[in-house]
Amino acid sequence: MSVLGTLDAALTYILSHFDTFLTLLREHLALVLVSVVLAIVVAIPLGVLATRNKQVKRVVMSVGNVAQTVPTLAIIALVFPLLGLGFLPSLVGLFTYALLPILTNTVAGLEDVDESTVAAARGMGMTENQILRKIKLPLALPVIFAGIRTSAVLNVGTAYLAFFIGGGGLGVWVITGISLFDTPQLLAGAIPGALLAIGLDLLFALIERRLGTNSAQTQTIATG
């Protein structure tokens, strides 16, 4: 079968199972977006703490590095006795995987803020918390968002593993298609995931550029 014929067969499979496709796509998106949002809520405050205390930074970065090296399936296996099968253990695995890029970028973004800008803010009488809210975080936001972008795109692919513990998502079609040697079903799950990753990457890249523009304006105001 030609490439066009294979793609046509995959599209036909999606259209003939469209309700199932929408369900799997919603599950996949929920796994990705919820895990990334939770990672943002945890990683950014930890990153702020890490820039204020070297000991905390050592511990946080070490834990983050370990979390990133442990395979998602291994994490799922560890939480399975506590959380069982389904959405929640899959979410824990994806959340753990999403942490490190956001955490490292938060630390890097905050530490890379120009010292003269911070000194100018102090000279204006700002407290450390005000400097963090009004200067450091706005200036670091493009770098932080780059970590969020990386986590989101990575988790689109990692979410396929949720199939193995009943977490749903497009992995249901991909893994089943591999098992049954059913190429149209496999591609019907794989192609939307690839398009989703590309779409999220382009969307986040656009937002990142806008944040970069705002960040430059903030620095101009702070040093002006």
Notes on the protein architecture:
Belongs to the binding-protein-dependent transport system permease family. This protein is mostly helical and 224 residues long. It has one domain: MetI-like fold, CATH 1.10.3720.10. It has helices spanning 3-16, 18-52, 54-69, 72-83, 87-111, 115-123, 128-158, 171-180, 183-223. α2 (18-52) runs antiparallel to α3 and α3 crosses α5. It is elongated, with a radius of gyration of 21 Å. The relative contact order is 0.15. The mean pLDDT is 86.
Which architecture would the CATH scheme give at its second level? Answer: Orthogonal Bundle
Helicity level: over 70%
CATH hierarchy class name: Mainly Alpha
Main beta-sheet annotation: none
Q: Domains counted in the coordinates: how many? A: 1
Principal-axes geometry comes out as: elongated
Question: What name does CATH use for the topology?
Answer: MetI-like fold
Percentage beta strand: under 5%
N-to-C CA distance = 64 Å
Helix-strand pattern: HHHHHHHHH
Report the structural category: mainly alpha
Number of helices: 9
What's a concise summary of this model?
With 224 residues, the protein is mainly alpha-helical. Helices cover 86% and strands 0% of the residues.
